[in-house]
Design brief:
Length: about 180
Amino acid sequence: MGLLNVSILLFFGLAVSGAFEDEQQLLENGTSLVLPEAPAESPEEPMDENSTGGCPRPWCQYGGRCFVFVNHNLRWVDAQRYCIHYGASLASIHNAYEDRFVRRITRRGCRGFRTAWVGGTDAVREGAWLWIDSTSFNYTRWNPGEPNNYGNENCLSINSGAHRGWNDLHCEKALPFVCARRI
C-alpha cells in the first residue's frame, strides 16, 4: 500500500475518531496551530557504533535515517504535522537495535526515559498496526498486556511503564515525540 493510500486511510481514521476536532475549532476561530521551533540542543556524539554525523544538528543518524527527539508535548496528529514540516514523519522502529537507539535519544533529550510518540497507529482498523511512513510493521516491543485499546487507544508510545516498552494511548494525549527521515 503506497504512502498516499496509507495517509488517506489514516486521515480518515483519525477524523472519525475526533482527533481533528480541536484543530477545526482553531480554524473556525481564525487561528491556527503554532508549531514549536526545531530543538536547539545538539545530542552528544557518537551515540553508538551505528551513529555517525551524517545528519544536520540536532538530528542523529542511525542506518539510512536521521532521528530527532522533540521535547515538546503535542497530540499524535500534531506531532506528525510537526515532523512533516521538517521533511520527516513520526519514527518507525524495525528491530531491537533501532528501538534501543530511539529510546536512548529520548533519554539524552531530557535526562530520563520519557514516554514519547512514534509513528505507529491502528486508527484505520483496530488491531491492525501500521507505521505512518508506510514501512512494514515487522517488530514490536509491547509491554505485557499491551496493546489493550483501553477506551479507544489508537496511537503508539514508547518508554512506557516499568519495562520502558510500547503502549497504545489516546491520540489526543500530549507527549514529546521522535521524528525520522531518510538521508
